[in-house]
Amino acid sequence: MAQEGLGRLFDLSIGFAPVDMQTAANTGKRINLRMYGGIEVVLFKGAGTAGDDPVLTLKQHTASSSGTTANLAAIDHYYVKSEQTLDGDEQWSRIAQTAAATITDPGAAGTSAEEQQIVVIPVNATALADGYDYISLDVADVGGNAQLGCVLYVARDLAAQRAPSNLVAPLS
């Protein structure tokens, strides 16, 4: 019998639950990277209206709440699956950019709002500045029209492998 991946290869945590991203800025929950070698930050979003392109901002924090917050200019590439209706036949596109904390209009310039997308941002724990242990992803208000989305954190390279029920809470 094969070993399961959860607790051995990865852990999952919420960035923010599914929400209409046009109602306000969406502040991602914080996840502690001390227990992981890195994380894949995943945005899954529905199709919206032209011009309502999402703007994603990666942040680092010194504490699970309050503390000091700063932008984390560690995004030099990311991956996108994008189609009018995601149905499983899409290929990943690797998008390179100068290292920054922000992604504006992910994927095909000018059309990200109109398509369903999965955006994956890999972040190594070593990218955090000294004294910073937490990261989060914020998504700005996309504009005046409905566009559903959520963020999921996929933590990888666990410092200690455990049964899923014994994993330390990612906000700890």
Task: Describe the 3D structure.
The chain is mainly β. The protein has one domain. The protein contains no helices and eleven strands. The protein has a six-stranded antiparallel beta sheet, with no helix packed on it. Strands 2, 4, 5, 8 and 10 form a five-stranded antiparallel beta sheet that branches. Strand 4 and strand 5 form a beta hairpin. The chain is globular, with a radius of gyration of 16 Å. The model has no long low-confidence stretch (mean pLDDT 92).
Give a brief outline of the structure.
With 172 residues, the chain is mainly beta.
What is this structure's SSE topology?
Blueprint (H helix, E strand, L loop, with lengths): L9 E11 L10 E2 L3 E10 L9 E7 L7 E3 L3 E9 L9 E8 L1 E3 L11 E9 L9 E6 L8 E11 L14
Antiparallel strand pairs: 1-11, 2-10, 3-9, 3-11, 4-5, 4-8, 4-10, 6-7, 6-9
